[in-house]
Target: Tryptophan synthase beta chain
Amino acid sequence: MAGLPHKILLDESQLPTQWYNVVPDLPGPPPPPLHPGTLQPIGPDDLAPLFPDDLIAQEVSTERFVDIPGEVLDVYRLWRPSPLYRAHRLERALGTPARIYYKYEGVSPAGSHKPNTAVPQAFYNARAGARRLTTETGAGQWGTALAFASGLFDLECEVWQVGASYDQKPYRRTMMETFGARVHRSPSDLTRAGRGVRAEDPQHPGSLGIAISEAVEVAAGDPETRYALGSVLNHVLLHQTVIGEETLLQLAAVEEVPDVIVGCTGGGSNFGGLTFPFLREKLAGRMSPVIRAVEPVSCPSLTRGVYAYDFGDTAGLTPLMKMHTLGHGFVPDPIHAGGLRYHGMSPLMSHVYELGLVEALALPQTECFAAAVRFARTEGIVPAPEPTHALAACIREALACRESGEEKVIVTALCGHGHLDLAAYDAYLSGRMVDEDVTEERLAPSLAGLPSVPTP
Ligand SMILES: *Cc1c(COP(=O)(O)O)cnc(C)c1O
Model:
């Protein structure tokens, strides 16, 4: 190991100055979002009550590259470019000839990749004159990122945190409040959507879909308030491509070409951010990595969902998006990877999956935490519960290489650290963590509740 690079760093002058939009490089565009009333494709005007013009333009953009504003680059420089590590000690522990690289996004202020999009979203909203942003948060990562970014651009920030995680992760709330946000337990009494759910079940653990309904309802009712989403939408995946652009430069610096790229998928943003620049290279014939999304067996939107138009939230307030979905009424088990508990998948990622350009795999959480503990003990970083899924898939691949003798180059995004998720590690280490599979009986009602949209 002596002399081999462990940490591949870029200097600030190599920070990408453009985000990459994969849409023009695909064989066809993703199906458009539809207005839930008319079932016609929505236009920019339909989105105007929720988002500023710049973000709407990015949402529908067909330009391959979008310049990153100087004000955003200035903030990115607080932690970017982020390091790419070679996992020498993990490789040795696995006895694999594979070479494993991980791009570490835990160095950001929130401890995850989420500030990559929170900062530009806050910037564009502030420039358009917004006074307040509302949002939802599951594990608390997105709320933390938006709280931080809002403060930098003098915006108020109000967060609906999924009840189960609000109860389990009090320190996330403290972190959001430290950055200046107001945090509500969702479902709350502050919105019609929240009151509706609470009327049926006052102890409801909440879900991302419900929290989105609450944040959207408040933003739609106040002209000075806009809504910000931390994943799923095209502009979010666009902003996250700084991850993949940097990783391309870092691998080139050590003359490596990836054979397999794996990442965890909740709404698809860290995965899209890592993989789209590589997909561009693949489509141009310059490399041919296998690209693999990893999701929890408890919320298997890609591997067991249907590809259909569905709402992004539980109350049905959002436009209809064509995506891999378990149905907007599906409430996943409260697994520890809160960021992966979303009923749908980004429409853009779903489209890319339908085109056969990426594969998907679902893993149980105990296998993921076993991988994470192994990783922590060799590489020294305690991963967030979400990327434990990616690490478990890396380990599966590396062990297959041990059998076959193949020296594959495996690349993943370690998209966050788990310093505020130690309760999950405690559950795992004390043997209390269980794997819950989703039965067909449980999926059936939420799939039956999909809105009916005639095929054009
Ligand atoms: C939010 C989050 C996720 C899930 O969101 P994606 O859009 O799929 O990336 C995964 N990992 C971490 C650390 C997160 O904070």
Remarks:
- The CA atoms of residues 73 and 389 lie 30 Å apart.
- The longest strand covers residues 156-162.
- Residues 112, 114, 139, 141-142, 231, 264-271, 339-340, 384, 386-387, 415-416 surround pyridoxal-5'-phosphate (CB under 6 Å).
